Amino acid sequence: MAEKGKYAIGSFSPRYTPVIQAVLRAAQQAQSPFICQISQKELERYGITPKEFADEFYACLKSEQITVPAVLHLDHTKTFSVIREAIEAGFTSVMIDASEKPFEENIRISKEAADFAHANGVSAEAELGMIGTTDYIETDNDEELYTDPQEAKRFVEETGVDSLAVSVGTAHGVYMVKEPKIDFARLEAIRELTPVHLVLHGGSGVPAWMIEKAIQLPKGGVSKVNIATDLELSLLEALGRTERMTNAELKALSPEELNVGLAAVEATVLDKISNFLGSKDRAADFLF
Known about the structure:
The protein is α/β, with parallel strands linked by helices. The chain has one domain: Aldolase class I (TIM Barrel). It has twelve helices and eight strands. The chain has an eight-stranded parallel barrel, surrounded by nine helices. The radius of gyration is 18 Å and the shape is globular. This is Class II fructose-bisphosphate aldolase. Dihydroxyacetone phosphate binds at residues 173, 202-204, 226-229. Zn(2+) 1 binds at residues 76, 172, 201. Zn(2+) 2 binds at residues 97, 127.
């Protein structure tokens, strides 16, 4: 639906379980389809289990009376046991990230993960090329290797993945020195050769016009954009903090202080939906 409508669905990472409420409220207010996600490294860094995250997500769907399409995604994951645990907990899609492996090995690992996911009624995402990082929260390598369109064609055919994260110039984290510069010609070539949904990781800090162009390429562009760092930055700024917390530390804040932080995250998500992704008021697309 996003590809047809020339918009993208935001895959937002709250990173802390209390923040799930804020992102869901924003999606409901904007009447936007929505993906809630967390990566293996985020689970480890913030001290959360897949079940804790999933339980909070589904509890919020009920307590907030969410009616927009909302699903739960496991982002960058290296370990099959985490994928298995997430699926058992109720995640509806999972991402295997073997992008640092040689091409043939990435195909083998990604196919194994996709087959396992599909056998359990869950969709699978993989990554080809390497998307750099500046904060080492989602991934642990700052190396960047652009996705080769011809390799992408073969990779998708042989792995059977449902979506593909491509490396075309963005990075995870905050852009301190290097500026984001999306290689639109490369993205168009990948789109031409691959039928699956394309995913843009590292959506935080990328200028709106770049995101919009990547989404609205003539023959279709990216339909899922991952955003994590901007949410945490808005949370910490509202709380007057600079250092990341653990999930337990955030939960220990007073309700008044926590609400200030959650309001800031909600505003950020609304801004991304309205001014970056173009998914505002598109929830109705999914009413069949």
